[in-house]
Design a protein that fits this description.
The structure holds two protein chains of two kinds. Chain A is α/β, with parallel strands linked by helices. Helix content of chain A is 44%, strand content 16%. Chain A has helices at 2-5, 30-35, 52-62, 68-81, 97-109, 127-142, 154-160, 178-183, 188-197; strands at 17-18, 21-22, 37-40, 115-119, 146-150, 163-168, 171-177. In chain A, helix 3 crosses helix 4 and helix 3 packs parallel to helix 5 (97-109). Chain B has one domain: MetI-like fold, CATH 1.10.3720. Chain B is built from eight helices and no strands.
């Protein structure tokens, strides 16, 4: 579903609106809309042939044609925020999974997106590393960024989210506020799920 | 063995080398550009590319199935007769060798690009990069690592194949050796020289590609 939001996957039916703009409409400038909507993937997808710095500055440099010094400055600022400034000249293969994902988040933030999409950002990580990534996401949430997160981290989800859409086998079972979802879900499937995992 | 008899022909051999290099370089440039385009067409889901796909298959099949010598004669002698346009040896040679290289390398490019994980393209797209740009900046540099060895093999084979052009009277290394044979009545020495020249050129090419490959491995 997340992949449909920025049209990496073509929805077979229905519409996707971001800021009132229909993403599924033919004439929509998808690349520009994608710039406004940062995305973080389950398996990081850092560019292995570029250093951490290269990964971060590539898109703003090539797409937004910003000056290199401005890009590097922002890259340093964002890497500092995710706690990885010391890794700026490393190549991705030298990083742990959690570090890669934090770099990927910083990379998405380089484009100054208005929204962020997280596609199971911690599913490919060891339990120890999950925390460091969740902390970064939590900070981002607290800074007021609008985000959509697909996750199985139920505790984290309860803590940071305002709304929850509960999916079962690709079908949305329930859409409600976080409080309501955890306390008294409407759908039978959600009740069953919560009793299993919580 | 009288290699000293060949000293007066040094200049001829040098221009032979230049001629061989010229045919190789031009054919290689044409072949790689066209091969890359055809390779991408073979992979693409774009509707226009889908129409072109069967044509690319026929193209590859033709060059795989027809000996280059036959192709060369057809283009050089038959095209002017059919289409009424005179064709120079360089025009015929470069187009046949270039198209042949394109046919062979298109498969190499297709497989190489296909070997780069899909997530790489998606990550670039998600950053707002346009598809063509992402292909050029992100996917192809990574594909190059697996493409390069095969591409070098193809270039080496091309360099050696250009010796066919001697049958059209172009004074490349092979033709020069023949000419020297005719003038000195010695066969062994000029052909040994030709063999050594080809060998050394291929060796240098291999060396350069090894250096390039090391450069590309920076990230892993």
């Amino acid at each position: 579903m997340l992949r449909c939001i920025n049209m990496l996957e073509q929805p077979t039916s229905g519409h996707v609106y971001i800021d009132g703009i229909d993403m599924t409409q033919k004439g929509t400038d998808i690349p520009t809309m994608r710039q406004r909507c940062g995305m973080v993937f389950q398996d990081f997808n850092l560019f292995p042939n570029m250093s951490v710095k290269g990964n971060l500055i590539y898109a703003p440099l090539k797409v937004k044609k910003e000056s290199e010094s401005a890009c590097v400055e922002r890259a340093e600022y964002l890497l500092d925020k995710v706690g990885l400034l010391s890794k700026i000249d490393e190549y991705p293969r030298k990083l742990s999974g959690g570090q890669k994902q934090r770099v990927a988040i910083a990379r998405a933030l380089m484009m100054n997106p208005e929204y962020m999409l997280f596609d199971e950002p911690t599913s490919a990580l060891d339990p120890e590393m999950i925390k460091e990534v969740l902390n970064v996401i939590r900070n981002l949430a607290e800074s007021g960024m609008t985000m959509a997160i697909v996750t199985h981290e139920m505790g984290f989800c309860r803590e940071v989210s305002k709304h929850i859409c509960f999916l079962d086998h690709g079908v949305a079972q329930e859409y409600s506020t976080t409080k309501k979802f955890y306390e008294s879900p409407d759908s039978e499937r959600a009740r069953e799920f919560l009793s299993q995992v919580m | 063995m009288r290699f000293d008899k060949l000293i007066p022909y040094t200049g001829m051999f040098i221009s032979g080398i230049k001629m061989t290099l010229k045919y190789t370089a031009l054919s290689l440039v044409l072949g790689i550009i066209l091969g890359l385009i055809i390779g991408i067409i073979k992979l693409s889901n774009n509707p226009v590319c889908k129409i072109l796909k069967p044509l690319t298959k026929i193209f590859t099949a033709l060059f795989r199935g027809i000996p280059l010598m036959v192709m060369l004669f057809m283009v050089y002698y038959a095209t002017p007769q059919v289409l009424n346009i005179p064709l120079s040896a360089i025009g015929a040679g470069v187009s046949v060798f270039g198209l042949n290289t394109a046919a062979m390398t298109s498969e190499v490019f297709r497989a190489g690009i296909d070997s780069v994980p899909k997530g790489q393209m998606e990550a670039a797209l998600a950053l707002g990069v346009k598809k063509g740009r992402a292909m050029l900046d992100i996917v192809i540099p990574q594909a190059l690592k697996s493409i390069l060895p095969a591409l070098v093999n193809e270039s080496i084979s091309l360099l050696k194949t250009t010796s066919l052009i001697s049958v059209l009277g172009v004074a490349d290394i092979m033709r020069t050796a023949n000419l020297v044979l005719a003038q000195t009545y010695t066969a062994f020495e000029p052909f040994v020289i030709a063999a050594v020249l080809y060998f050394v050129m291929v060796y240098i090419l291999t060396f350069l590609s090894n250096m390039l490959e090391k450069g590309l491995r920076k990230g892993d």
